[in-house]
Amino acid sequence: MPAGRFLLSGVALVPGAELTLPDEIAHQARDVLRLGSGATLRLLDGAGSEYPAEIVRVARREVTARVGERQEGLPQPAVRLTLCLGLLKAARFEWALQKGTELGVATFQPLVTERAVAATEEFGAARRRRYERIVAEALEQCGGAWLPELAVPCALEEALDAAPANAIRVIPWEEEAAASLTATLRAEAAALRAGEAQPDIWLYIGPEGGFSAREVERARAAGALPVTLGPRILRAETAAIVAAALAMDALGALNSGPPR
């Protein structure tokens, strides 16, 4: 990760105040990066702001830094993307979280589906803390300033109903051969009234084994548009990142727009 970028989500960052860094961040600054008194680092609040901070004291058990003036971090992408992903084996789900954060996904919505290999019970407190740490580290590494939301797992039907009224909902499916994700999104965006804000994109990716035909029909009935990602069968975590990148690129969101 870029040297000295640390997320302090939920911690009040007050310019001019001295702050004792959390133990894990203190360890990284003192023992990994070897930062001493007078060195600078950047503290993130996860909501778009960054604060330069100067280390004023390094001790065996704590590191203290003085918080500088607030600066605007990298803006969110112009399009807000919610990635709804069927629960996967932990390592694959973690990879999708990491890469999705790097791309600028706004919300990760884990899905409980017919073919999900991971049970909801496995998404317990310890697992969630690990997932949150992976997302935080990815944010620090990629230069972003907005921490994605990691929602509570829910059924596909709930995730379909949760999308805003003007959202574009797409569901990649191996049985769909004609409608590409890129062409579908561009056509849907072009159909918006002049002057209307960019829509939210809700992207539904199945677990290992994909969605069942019954699930896709439920999604279609709820207004989701089945699309293809091409002729090859992709792993679920690969499909998630390919689809997210294509969706954001199709609407010009890979280059950051104004904060939302």
- What is the count of structural domains? 2
Q: Looking at this structure, what is the CATH superfamily of the largest domain?
A: SPOUT methyltransferase, trefoil knot domain
Low-confidence stretches: 256-260
Cα-atom radius of gyration: 20 Å
Shape: elongated
* Most strands sheet: 7 strands, parallel
* Helix-strand topology string: EEHEEEEEHEHEEHEHEHEH
Summarize the structure.
With 260 residues, this protein is α/β, with parallel strands linked by helices. It has two domains: 5-72, Ribosomal Protein L25, Chain P, CATH 2.40.240.20; 81-250, SPOUT methyltransferase, trefoil knot domain (Alpha/beta knot).
Task: Outline the structure in words.
With 260 residues, the chain is an alpha/beta fold. It folds into two domains: 5-72, Beta Barrel (Ribosomal Protein L25, Chain P); 81-250, Alpha/beta knot (3-Layer(aba) Sandwich). It is 32% helix and 22% strand. It has seven helices and 13 strands. The chain has helices spanning 23-32, 90-103, 125-142, 156-162, 181-190, 213-221, 236-250; strands at 5-7, 18-20, 40-44, 49-58, 63-67, 71-72, 81-86, 107-112, 149-150, 154-155, 168-172, 201-205, 225-227. The strands form two sheets. Strands 7, 8, 9, 10, 11, 12 and 13 form a seven-stranded parallel sheet that branches. Strands 1, 2, 3, 4, 5 and 6 form a six-stranded mixed sheet that branches. α2 packs parallel to α7 and α5 runs parallel beside α7 (236-250). It is elongated and about 60 Å long. Mean pLDDT is 89; it is low at 256-260.
